[in-house]
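To: structure desk
From: M.T.
Subject: fold request, one chain
Message: Could you run this one when you get a chance? Sequence is below, nothing fancy, just the single chain.
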Amino acid sequence: MFSKPIFSLLSLLVATSALAAANITSSSGTVFVTTAEGTRSALVTGNRVENGSQIVTGNNGLVVMRFDDGQVVALEKNTDFRIKQFRFTAAAPEQGNAFFSMLRGSLRAVTGLIGRGNKAAFRLETPTATIGIRGSDWMAALQNNGLFTGVNNGGIVINQGANTLLVDAGQYSATLGANTSQLVSFSQLPANVFGSLPNLSLSAAAGSASAGSVGSTAGTAGVSGGAIAAGAAVAAGVAATSNSDDSTATHHSPPSH
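Reply: Done. Structure tokens follow.
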């Protein structure tokens, strides 16, 4: 039987092991990370970002990160993104959570094991609204005091006070004020609102997400011709698009203006 001090220590170790974050699979231009302790440094391919980190991209910055549950997040230039809380254990991904915030800029995200196991465990907070997921590949951009989204696969939920809006594959939304979230056509979005995000190739590599991947660089990634090929080692359930909550569409290219 464990003594109280030993039991407390073991509990702390278990809790700490559940804290996780992401590996940088591709980084170009100016990208900085500030840790939860306040240390700021340049962020390059192969680095690891931890729980509580803030990632900021400059005028020419572009970065792709693969989280330990297989989730992939790409940040466009001039983006301010924070990992508020990311907890993941391979044995029980549905008990983890992925809470993020974006103060400015734009991102694209592909759902990982946490979001597939428990959709309520994912949340992206912005100054305009909060975004939840339903198993998806989606984009979000903050511009001119508005929030704009587009969904390539699956769906997202825009929560803004009493207003809740579902955005499914091939759809776009605009939130321009209090309780104003609505579906819009692509032509109603600001020009080039998502930057290079629609053209990114976020491809899954063979392998599985596991706690053992902590501290390693995941897959291969590079920046070529403005597109990023991010190696995201994900479990079969993450890469599958046959789940009932996902659309069979893999990517919707925005129509030209």
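Reply (cont.): DSSP finds three helices and 21 strands in the chain. Let me know if you need anything else for the meeting.
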